[in-house]
Specification:
Elements: H1 3-10, E1 13-15, H2 17-32, E2 52-55, E3 58-59, E4 73-74, H3 75-86, E5 94-100, E6 102-104, H4 108-119, E7 124-133, H5 135-140, E8 145-148, E9 153-155, E10 160-167, E11 170-177, H6 193-218, H7 222-227, H8 235-240, H9 250-277, H10 280-283, H11 286-292
Parallel strand pairs: 2-5, 3-4, 5-7, 7-8, 7-9
Antiparallel strand pairs: 1-6, 10-11
Helix pairs in contact: 1-2, 3-4, 9-11
Length: 306
Amino acid sequence: MRHLTQLMTNAPMLMTVDAHQSNLALLNQFYQNPKLFLDNDATKGRNTFCHLSVFGPTSHRFNELDASCNEVVSYRDLRTNFTHLMTNDEIKQVFVEFDGPGGEATGCFDLASHIRALSKVKPVIGFINGNCFSANYALASACSQLYASPHSMAGSIGVIYGRREVQNDKEKITYFTTGEAKADGSPHTELTDAESQRQQAIVDQLGESFFSLVGEFRGLEVSALKDLQAQIFNANQLLSHGLIDGIKTEEEIKTMMTDGKHKRIVAEINAALALVALPKSKAGSYNHAKRALINRNGHVLVSMAG
C-alpha cells in the first residue's frame, strides 16, 4: 500500500488540494498504526439509494482502505460493477450517486470512456449528491444524464501535482496545477488577493442559500438574518430573534407529545359521534356508524349498545 503515498507525491492527481493533503496525512498515519483503521463492516460508507455509488477518493487499482480513512474505490472495481449492471436485464436505467473529492489520474479517463460507451447500451443517470470534484466529476460527466441536488457543488476540472521535498527534517510540497484555483486552500502556498476573492465568493454563495433557507422556513427577512452576523445565541435571544417558537423543558415537550395524542383521540371520538348523529340516509347503516367509532388500531373509542 505504500505505493499510494508515492503516487500522492510523484504523480499527477485529479483531486482537490484539500483531498490531496488530508489523504496524504491519513496514509502517513495508517503506516504508523494500521490497527487504527481496521473496520470489518463491509457496508460502511457504501450506503446509497442508487444502483451504484462513487464516494470518496478513487484510485486506479487500490481498493478497500477502510471507511475510517475515506475508503478508496478503484476504477477497476467500478468498471466491473458498471458492466454487471449493464448485463442485468431487470435494470432498465443505471442510477449512480456521486460524492467525492477526486482521485488518481491514471485509469480515470479510460473508465469515463467506458461509462460513456455503456450509456449507449443502457441509460446511465448520474446524481451529484454532495461534492463532485475533479476525477469524480470526470466520471459523472460520462453519464447519459447528470443531475445535482440543490446544494451540491462540483467542478475543480483540472490536474494537480504535488512535489514533496524533505530537507533537514522539514517538509515542503510545491504544487503544479492547471488552473489558478486548483491549489486554493493549500497551506504550502501564499494566499493571494485573487484566491481570497474566490474563497469569499464561494462562502458568499453558500451563505445566500443559507439565509434564504432559514428566511423561508422561519418567516424572516434575509436582511435580518444577515444582520445577525453569524452570532451564537442563547434560548431567550433565539426567541427574541424569531429563530425558535418557544422555550420548553424536556418534561414540557413530553407533555406536548402526550397532549397531542390525547387531542387526536378526542377528535376521532367527536368525529365518530357526529357521524352517528347524522340521519341514517346520510350516515349510512348502523354498522357503518359503529365501525366509525373504532380507530385504526382496532381499539373501541365509544361503546354502542344495540
